[in-house]
Design the sequence.
């Protein structure tokens, strides 16, 4: 790769009272890409992001942003980045414009620079009409747009978005995806976290799947899916009592990579559907399993997630539950 | 330095704006101490209070100093509340992710709390004036009262902010606040002079910095410079120590919370 490295994270750890929120994380973000951290709640995404934006000091390891160390050269880093926190970090009593004016002063813009940029940003996020109303009158989507405008005010080299569409309606969500794509088109580097698989799939150039503070796998969505090796045939059976027999029978067949029981049937990973489908149907017939439904899928990011973490993103970690 | 000033004035402006948007709450904060303590309490106890014990022409004139210092106490102890909410809703994180000097937010809060408190103290002295309490030491005495108020207020605000940065939930914050403020008032010379208290209470009240502040403010209002000066000298020393301790603790809490 001859691409410019925008962020270099090396063996990053963050420990809270002997609990590793982030555990030996290493990755690089290239200039101009949308990089995603995908993981369930409590995976350590926000902690990682807060370290990159200099708000947390790593317990060990380092993070370098545009060549500057996140601890020793924090001020240089802060001047180059924009941050959109996970919570709606909005002051209910201030208007949208006042939010941006306050941040303009904190980024040391002159009055003229600030006024010009605030006007542009309000247009971009379509809040001009509401700019002079207190933020407590904003809808969730409008607050998020204001959040994003705040993150963009310094005209950052890198924009950090923590769960940018969490809890938003579908339209606001799509709108925010559009902004992110447009920012990338303008040459901005974007680092975002999400626990939505479709968001990671559609938006990110590369992503790291993170769980329990560790990176499980990393790559472009397409690479990750290909790496799983093969497509999936999902069977839904009429009765499930003969399912174990079918599962056993299908395992170790040449065209079949793996078989996994679900609640209603089997997920069968196949190398080529042309060869595997006859085998599956023959087997089912022979064992007297009547098939209600048969579905053939290219791997989705959900499958990548399950393959690398052993569970779906919506299921909680077994340890986390007992804790 | 220019940047520092730009940051602090913008952040201070934000506190002013917030207050001005909460008109009802502003009115309530300003009027409450006067209405409740000075006017109700002062008039209610007018006849019950013994002028001989109070060493004052009437109870309101005795109480004025107490109400001034109580206002400083309440404003100071509540001074961290807005930062607590900023911390909880992520606004503080947003502020701290910008390239501002790490102390700007805190300094803006000190400036704001001190300005509001001074205004309230002036209003209280104004209302007392209407009830016939004329400060014996004149304008200079009023300036001295403001200085003492600010010295006490800085330490209290530091405690409040330290708490805001350290507590796990805002429930904890308000419990501690409620637990601190009333005993501080009752175990001080705000409502009755130490000589009129039960022995154990007056003993404890001696260690309350509030008592020292009131004992300096009261002669500034009632007696005159010759009687006030020794107390003023003393309270300045006490407050320097108090502020140093509170600021040290506050700085530690801040550094722990902000990394
Ligand atoms: N300030 C903190 N003190 C103690 N534990 C924390 C703190 N912040 C985060 N954690 C823990 O670290 C883990 C990762 O949290 P976080 O980074 O917020 O996850 P995510 O953003 O992926 O949902 C969680 O188990 C969380 O409880
Ligand atoms: Mg998070």
Sequence:
């Amino acid at each position: 790769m001859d691409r410019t490295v925008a962020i270099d994270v090396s063996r990053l750890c963050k420990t809270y009272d002997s609990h590793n929120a982030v555990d030996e994380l290493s990755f690089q973000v290239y200039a101009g890409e949308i990089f995603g951290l995908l993981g369930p709640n409590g995976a350590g995404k926000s902690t990682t992001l807060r370290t990159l934006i200099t708000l947390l000091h790593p317990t060990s390891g380092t993070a370098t942003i545009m060549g500057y160390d996140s601890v020793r050269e924090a001020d240089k880093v802060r001047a180059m980045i924009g941050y959109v926190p996970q919570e709606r970090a909005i002051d209910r009593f201030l208007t949208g414009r006042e939010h941006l004016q306050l941040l303009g002063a904190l980024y040391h813009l002159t009055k003229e620079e600030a006024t010009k940029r605030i006007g542009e940003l309000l247009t971009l996020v379509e809040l001009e009409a509401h700019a002079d109303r207190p933020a407590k009158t904003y809808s969730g989507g409008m607050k998020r747009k204001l959040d994003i405008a705040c993150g963009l005010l310094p005209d950052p080299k890198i924009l950090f978005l923590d769960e940018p569409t969490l809890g938003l309606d579908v339209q606001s969500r799509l709108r925010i995806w559009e902004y992110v794509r447009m920012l990338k088109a303008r040459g901005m580097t974007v680092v975002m976290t999400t626990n939505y698989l479709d968001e990671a799939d559609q938006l990110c150039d590369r992503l790291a799947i993170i769980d329990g503070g560790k990176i499980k796998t990393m790559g472009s969505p397409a690479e990750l899916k290909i790496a799983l090796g093969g497509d999936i045939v999902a069977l839904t059976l009429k009765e499930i009592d003969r399912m174990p027999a079918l599962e056993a029978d299908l395992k170790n067949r040449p065209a079949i990579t793996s078989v996994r029981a679900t609640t209603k049937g089997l997920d069968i990973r196949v190398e080529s559907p042309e060869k595997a489908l006859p085998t599956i149907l023959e087997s089912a017939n022979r064992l007297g399993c009547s098939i209600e439904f048969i579905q053939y899928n290219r791997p989705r990011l959900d499958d990548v997630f399950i393959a690398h973490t052993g569970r779906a993103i919506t299921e909680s970690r077994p340890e986390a539950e007992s804790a | 330095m220019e940047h520092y000033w730009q940051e602090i004035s913008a952040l201070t402006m934000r506190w002013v704006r917030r207050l001005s948007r909460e008109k009802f709450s502003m009115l309530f904060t300003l009027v409450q101490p006067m209405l409740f303590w000075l006017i109700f309490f002062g008039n209610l106890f007018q006849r019950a209070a013994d002028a001989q014990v109070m060493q004052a022409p009437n109870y309101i004139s005795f109480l004025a100093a107490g109400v001034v210092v109580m206002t400083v106490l309440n404003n100071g102890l509540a001074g961290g509340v807005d930062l607590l909410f900023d911390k909880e809703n992520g606004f503080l994180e947003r502020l701290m992710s910008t390239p501002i000097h790490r102390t700007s937010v805190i300094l803006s809060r000190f400036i704001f709390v001190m300005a509001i408190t001074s205004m309230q103290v002036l209003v209280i002295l104004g209302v007392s004036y209407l009830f016939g309490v004329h400060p014996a030491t004149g304008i200079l005495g009023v300036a001295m009262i403001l200085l003492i108020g600010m010295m006490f207020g800085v330490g209290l605000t530091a405690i409040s902010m330290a708490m805001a940065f350290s507590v796990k939930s805002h429930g904890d914050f308000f419990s501690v606040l409620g637990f601190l403020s009333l005993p501080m008032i009752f175990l001080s010379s705000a409502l009755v002079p130490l000589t009129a208290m039960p022995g154990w209470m007056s003993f404890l009240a001696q260690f309350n910095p509030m008592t020292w502040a009131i004992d300096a403010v009261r002669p500034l209002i009632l007696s005159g410079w010759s009687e006030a000066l020794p107390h003023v000298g003393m309270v300045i020393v006490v407050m320097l120590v108090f502020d140093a301790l509170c600021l040290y603790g506050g700085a530690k809490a801040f550094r722990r919370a902000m990394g």
